[in-house]
Amino acid sequence: MSILFQNVTAVLMDGASTVLSNAFVAVEGGKIASVGAKKPEGVFERVIDGKGGILMPGLVNAHTHVPMTAMRGYGDGHDLHDWLNNFIFPVEAKWDDRAIRACADLGLMEMIASGTTCLCDMYMNTLTIGQAVADAGLSANLGLGAVFFGETFSPEACGDCAKSQELYDAWHGFDNGRILVDGSIHAEYTSKPGVYEWVADFAKSHGLGINVHISETQTEHEECKARHGGLTPIQVMEKYGVLDVRCTAAHCVWTQPEDWAVMAARGVTAVHNPASNLKLGSGVAPIVELMKAGVNVALGTDGVSSNNTTDMFEDMKLAAILQNGVRRDPLALTAQDALRFATVNGAKALGRDTGSIEVGKQADLILLDADALNLIPCHDAANNIAYAAHGCDVKLNMCRGKVIYENGAFLTIDREKTLREVREYAVPMLFKGK
Amino acid sequence: MSILFQNVTAVLMDGASTVLSNAFVAVEGGKIASVGAKKPEGVFERVIDGKGGILMPGLVNAHTHVPMTAMRGYGDGHDLHDWLNNFIFPVEAKWDDRAIRACADLGLMEMIASGTTCLCDMYMNTLTIGQAVADAGLSANLGLGAVFFGETFSPEACGDCAKSQELYDAWHGFDNGRILVDGSIHAEYTSKPGVYEWVADFAKSHGLGINVHISETQTEHEECKARHGGLTPIQVMEKYGVLDVRCTAAHCVWTQPEDWAVMAARGVTAVHNPASNLKLGSGVAPIVELMKAGVNVALGTDGVSSNNTTDMFEDMKLAAILQNGVRRDPLALTAQDALRFATVNGAKALGRDTGSIEVGKQADLILLDADALNLIPCHDAANNIAYAAHGCDVKLNMCRGKVIYENGAFLTIDREKTLREVREYAVPMLFKGK
């Protein structure tokens, strides 16, 4: 289908951070066909008038756990250990595919309505999450976050190895690469060197990336060093080959200068999760230092149980202002920096041809409401996006050239059925007796 | 008019932090007439079915500068001095009443739509702001933030003294106290002791409160001490009688233990503005210490040019998570704490009988959308409000028993006319040649 956006303020996120007023953006065959100030030749099946609103690349949520919508606000206000052991883990032990599907659909709707077009998800029951993403129409890198608490590793002893292979077989490359599978290691502390090596080999042999939690808390970082002769989580991952492929490292709150050098040299992306890191008391990630060291920084919401929303605009604003505040430097990070985290840098992290409005890129686009009160006036589109926009300003979400959300209506997910499934099946089943 | 809310999850914000499921809340004569699990007797002119959504007290934005919507995103990304001198002040020199009215209406609409029912505003052209608030239907404490850069103070030499008196004469007590006038001192560093004393006497003689910026930046705090023989801004205000009345001190980022003791003893409220303080690089206010010292902590968005929205839900979430993150303690602040800042504590700060759902209080109420994706499921209403809700989840805003906003429609402000005035008059006039 060919679609023309006209009368939009196009925030391109190209190398020059171009913003075009009164722009035209044409989409054809799922890709961006033209961008410019003049109306392109040709006949379009649909013309969308943006009424002066902002058209920008869809947001890339580079670290999340989408079905955790089920646990939104459950157990908040307890310390981390208590929260995980007495609230989160007992519920996670009850998951079945029907509940996963309902809660994934809820999470995907929330993301779509707030402007996400591409995500990187790490969770369990990933075959079902694959189906949800396939049906929802957005793009995702999916990983089965491998954990292994056994004594002696073998691929047979670690059920998550077999499940990663199944996930790959079922979903990798689906719909011309709309779904990609990543190798996935939950974290250094929930696993063993055998797992790191197996996932690294799995990713290398299939040409995949890897995602992993890195140095989220100080305890995790220090205990890793004690266990591994002074090596940090990043250094452990490097030792076992995990950094030999495109790798996204979530959190990175406690990474050190030595880690930043390794990450820059090996092309590892740091995924910043500012809301989650603040809420759980993990700390403030050294984002300015990571950037200065040359590390690609992307942005994620983390799971809903530690955020408690998946509104990327909220994390974008937080990313934009948090470094300024804790360093007492109003110029520590700019609106453009935060915008890059949420778009082009996320695309790079996930190995995807998206995140900017340029000819030939995937047509992953969102249109913001020109009449949203919080976007008036618009002296500077990037400033309005980073500091003033809310997810609910998204009027239209297009993934790979297809409109999947418009004016509050979901075109790929049955909203009412999903809410019914969450309320009448998933929540009663998961929280029975609680 | 008598109105009954039924089928709501009522978050009362009473002393016991009660949350009532399937609750009924009746409103009569602008006040809350009953709250309970049983339908009250009597006939109501209107029955509002909340469909299970959250009914809570309207939010109190305890520090803002409402007409600054004009400068949203204008000059962001420049250092504070450059930003103020080359962007904000030159525009402020051009204000006229027509532009103030348009931009105030825009700001009030944004606040109303995101759940604010009461605000404390400090700005200039306050007679016009009074008219805007009067027409909008919400409650406000208005202050003419006095500044004085002259050599020798006299009330005649300081135009802001006469303007404060005019503001008092025109608007104090309007509509049974819906509008109150506060004495207002912009800050220690923009004024002189004569002004502090004059405002203190003005407030005392008329029975008013006072609002003032306190210790927003380290420079301001330290320069004050150098100027005043070691006295901090709070101590200076105490010396000149400003703390003899109900006083709200905005920011308080650099206040010290001695200040907290004074504030607690004198009943001074600290108004936390977390988004503004982060964005401008001012720092992180010592909110936990202020609370421990017994200081009343309220919440404000600050002006739009340093936030850049007036969505109190955003600042509520930031308040709830920021202290946890910078102290690395997930229990440093709870959802309830942040909710209290934004409701009951704000009401106390402004000397108002609102901020909780209790019989006899002003009927300042907001209803959240039961079907907002980001509020599903609802394991704990306070957690959902503090961490997951967005301003756009507000379906209905009632001030003093009158519905002023419902399902996206403004019942007291002409939205289209305001946008036209902002776009066609205020912005061209204020930013001409820029």
What does this structure look like?
Two copies of one chain form a homodimer. Chain A has 434 residues and is α/β, with parallel strands linked by helices. In chain A, a hairpin with a 7-residue loop joins strand 1 (3-11) and strand 2 (19-28). Chain A is built from 16 helices and 18 strands. The model of chain A has no long low-confidence stretch (mean pLDDT 97). In chain A, helix 3 runs parallel beside helix 4 (159-171) and helix 13 crosses helix 15 (381-388). Chain A is 38% helix and 22% strand. In chain A, the strands form three sheets. In chain A, strands 1, 2, 3, 4, 5, 15, 16, 17 and 18 form a nine-stranded mixed sheet that branches. A five-stranded parallel sheet of chain A has the order 10-11-12-13-14. A four-stranded parallel sheet of chain A has the order 6-7-8-9. Chain A folds into two domains: 3-57 and 357-410, Urease, subunit C, domain 1 (Roll); 59-349, Alpha-Beta Barrel (TIM Barrel). Chains A and B meet through helix 2, helix 10, helix 12, helix 15 and helix 16 of A and helix 2, helix 10, helix 12, helix 15 and helix 16 of B.
